[in-house]
Write a structure and sequence with these properties.
Length: 847
């Protein structure tokens, strides 16, 4: 059963207030702990939000689950299952609604039972006379029997028996339709009883009747037809339950402003436990005494007495009586308001039932939010995945804080990657396996390189590639949706997380398991504190085993563990239930005229051509022409535009994509035009890419080499690779492999960048520039990571201290081992004695 911690609160408004207060309190407490522990804000904010949402979910699920249960139960009842009930443990308005719903379900179950009994009883009662009537008619038709008065009388009796049953059913339908007319008149009771007895004598039953009216001239107010119906049904019931040769007594007496009708038979009687059951609709005494009947007679008798403002029931037999004794208590002057018709219905026919809508499961909040983009698919709870994610989080909390990246971080990344790949539905897909392999190569960078910017870039790229592999993205839009889906998995996966937690609690008795865990923790804490305060040795042991939960170190470790565990758990849910990111792309409507797409492309071609002409003028005109025309040096000139050229390259790809979607390609002429115009544009773009790379090279030679400039080079080169891929794909960007090619080529270029050791490459080129120009930015070199130190150690001994900082170099433990730092320490150990401690640093410039 779903936990409902707020069931004892009597108001929904108060529950909502407590929900908000609890969420705010949790967020405040967690935020305060994070701030006091020095947790970075980028780490404390997501952890705080996640915990606040978890508390909200825990408290809100108990508020909404009764409504959801009622909806599911109502749908089951609509299909005929009236045995469903909902948990009505809440004491608020929703709990009252749940209890009313259960009462309604019980009443509907009773009505359904009565309906089934009616069908069974009526079928039985109709089958007997029908069988006899058919037999008689068959004998008459075959000539076996002659149409003698006795035979026809028997057939008529069977028909009248069925007519009586149908009349009872019609009377009951009037009750159900809400029509209750009374035609009040003065009724002479003695003739009323005599006429009813005369009808019973015609039925042919071997029963005698005794009538007594006191006083004999008793006259009452009532509806003659209804009163006759009342007496007839009582006499019929008594006659059927009396033995052959028995006597049925009917007596009417006046008592003050009431009068009684008493009918007594000589049958077996009715036990007190069954007396109320006999007057229910379709209720019979057949299960008690085998008397038969449909059970409609006494129900109609009660209806008549109710119409007259009276009551009816079985009374205890008087001395000398052996059978059942039925007493109807009626007023001498019934209430006139009962003569009015009920406005409930205008017809005795029930209204036609509207067709039931097809059954659809009630969507949860997350189902309604994410819709068909991310269906839940009923993913079963997985305890191992949850425990695995928690294990990765604990491992990260124990290893990552207060250590530089190295072998420990690689272990966390490998554990997380193994869990994500193991839970993925697509783990056997070649694309997913390729992504996993590239992620492994990106992860290895954390133990090979010390440059934090490179490690961070590789880890983030690996995370994005991991998610794309889990969802099997095929195009750029799916890549973007995959990146958005990871943080949203914390919301989408709540139902799955709830199912997983219920599986855990189901293993140990739910609330009992929680209580046991809490009591155990409290017991260990209390006695450990007592013994620690009583014994110094025990206190030392406890201090060595139990972390200081009040320390800032412990707070940071908890935040890291929670953050990493949550991120891994969200990724695992993506693997178990990936969203539908690869929806069919809507086919664009091509434009009607060729010039609508061709003219813009040709204009862009012309602009690119003019730009390249300007580049050629600079190349052939030389520095003098550039200075005379623009007033800029060549270094200033190339610095002015490489960023813009990079943007222009990216926009060119966008132009090719848009034009290829809008251009009709039905005719060979159209295909030739689009390939020609866009092919020219891509060719010119490659020249622009080369120009941008050349500009960056000239700028670096003039002002120095930095990591950012190297990244721009790599990015521009990647755009050039995409342009080549576009040309290979037919200049239309319709090749299905092109988005994944762009993804993999970018990752491979990043891995290649890590392989060349960028900080060492930057250091080498800056040293080479210093040797030729005498200019160098010593401050920037000192800020480089340990990856560059083996290269910087090749400087003359009196200049090494200008480029290398030897401060704060402590020995790493094995979890911090990193190849870049290890090589840096080896270089320092080999040459530290040769380096000048107070160097003079010439040629200082700013990069």
């Amino acid at each position: 059963m779903t936990a409902r911690p707020l069931d004892q609160v009597r108001s929904v408004k108060v529950k909502l207030g407590l929900l908000v207060a609890a969420s705010v309190a949790v967020a405040s407490i967690v935020g305060t702990i994070g701030s006091a522990g020095g947790v970075p804000i980028w780490l404390s904010i997501p952890v705080t939000i996640a915990l606040a949402l978890a508390v909200t979910q825990l408290l809100a699920v108990g508020m909404t689950s009764p409504l959801r249960e009622m909806t599911v139960a109502a749908r089951s009842m609509a299909t005929g299952d009236h045995s469903v009930r909902v948990a009505a443990t809440s004491r608020d308005e929703v709990g009252e609604l749940a209890r009313a719903f259960n009462r309604m379900a019980e009443e509907l179950a009773g009505v359904d039972r009565q309906r089934r009994e009616l069908v069974a009883n009526v079928s039985h009662e109709l089958r007997t006379p029908l069988t006899a009537l058919c037999a008689l008619l068959e004998n008459l038709a075959d000539g076996v029997a002659e149409p003698e008065p006795e035979t026809l009388r028997a057939a008529l009796d069977q028909g009248e028996r069925m007519t009586t049953l149908v009349t009872d059913l019609l009377d009951l339908s009037r009750v159900d339709a809400g029509k209750a007319p009374l035609d009040l008149q003065d009724v002479d009771v003695a003739p009323l009883l005599e006429a009813a007895v005369a009808e019973q004598r015609i039925s042919g039953r071997d029963v005698a009747y005794a009538v007594e009216v006191s006083p004999p001239e008793l006259v009452v107010q009532g509806d003659p037809a209804r009163l006759r119906q009342l007496v007839a049904n009582l006499l019929d019931n008594a006659s059927r339950h009396s033995p052959p040769g028995g006597t049925v007594s009917v007596r009417a007496d006046a008592f003050g402003d009431h009068w009684h009708v008493v009918v007594v038979d000589q049958g077996p009687g009715v036990a007190p436990a069954h007396r109320d059951r006999a007057f229910e609709r379709f209720g019979t005494l057949s299960e008690v005494d085998g008397g038969g009947g449909t059970g409609l007679g006494l129900a109609i008798a009660r209806w008549v007495t109710d119409l007259h403002g009276g009551s009816i029931g079985f009374a205890n037999p008087e001395p000398g009586e052996s059978g059942a004794r039925v007493l109807a208590d009626l007023p001498l002057n019934p209430t006139l308001t009962r003569t009015k018709e009920s406005p409930m219905a205008e017809s005795t026919l029930p209204p036609a039932a509207a067709p039931l809508p097809p059954y659809e499961p009630l969507p949860s909040l997350t189902d309604s939010t994410f819709g068909s983009f991310w269906p839940d698919d009923g993913v079963p709870g997985n305890v191992r995945v949850l425990l695995g994610a928690l294990g990765v989080g604990v491992l990260a909390g124990a290893i990552i804080p207060f250590r530089d990246h190295g072998l420990g971080v690689l272990l966390v990344l490998l554990a997380a990657g193994a869990l994500l790949l193991g839970t993925s539905r697509n783990r056997r897909d070649p694309f997913t396996m390729t992504c996993a392999g590239l992620c492994l190569l990106l992860s290895i960078v954390v133990v090979l390189r010390d440059a934090e910017w490179l490690v961070a870039l590789c880890v983030l790229t690996g995370a994005g590639l991991c998610i794309i592999g889990l969802v099997r993205g095929r195009n750029v839009l799916s890549f973007v949706l995959a990146g958005i889906a990871w943080p949203l998995a914390g919301l989408r996966g709540m139902p799955w997380l709830g199912r997983t937690v219920r599986r855990i609690t189901g293993m140990g008795g739910g609330a009992a398991l929680v209580r046991t865990a809490v009591l155990s923790i409290v017991g260990v804490t209390v006695f450990a504190l007592l013994f620690a305060s009583a014994d110094a040795v025990f206190a030392e042991w406890v201090g060595a085993v139990v972390p200081n939960v009040g320390s800032a170190d412990f707070a940071l470790r908890v935040f890291v563990a929670f953050f990493v565990g949550g991120v891994v758990l969200a990724g695992a849910y993506l693997g178990l239930n990936p969203p539908e990111v690869n929806r069919a792309e809507r086919t664009p409507r091509p434009v009607a005229h060729r010039f609508e797409w061709l003219a813009p492309v040709l204009v862009v071609d012309a602009v690119f051509a003019v730009f390249l002409v300007a580049q050629a003028a600079v190349i052939f005109g030389g520095h003098d022409y550039l200075r005379r025309t623009t007033g800029l040096t060549y270094a200033e000139y190339v610095h002015q535009g490489f960023g813009q050229l990079t943007v222009a390259t990216a926009l060119t790809l966008l132009v090719v994509w848009a034009a290829s979607r809008k251009a009709p390609q039905a005719t060979p002429s159209d295909r030739a035009w689009i390939r020609g115009s866009l092919g020219v544009l891509c060719g010119l773009t490659l020249v622009v890419v080369a120009s941008a790379l050349y500009r960056m090279h000239v700028y670096q030679e003039a002002y120095g080499f930095t990591g950012l400039r190297l990244l721009v080079d790599v990015f521009e080169g990647w755009l050039g690779v995409l342009v080549l891929g576009t040309l290979a794909g037919g200049v239309a960007l319709r090749a299905v492999w092109l988005p994944r090619f762009a993804l993999f080529s970018g990752v491979v270029l990043l891995i290649g960048l890590a392989a060349i050791n960028p900080d060492a490459w930057i250091a080498r080129h800056n040293i080479d520039r210093y040797e030729t120009s005498g200019k160098i930015d010593w401050t920037y070199l000192r800020a480089l990571s340990d990856d560059a130190l083996p290269v910087l150690s090749t400087l003359p001994p009196d200049l090494v201290e200008c480029a290398v900082s030897l401060d704060d170099r402590t020995h790493d433990d094995w979890l911090e081992w990193n190849l870049g730092r290890s090589r840096a320490r080896a270089a320092i150990a080999d040459h530290a004695g040769e380096w000048r401690q107070d160097p003079v640093c010439p040629g200082q410039t700013n990069n």
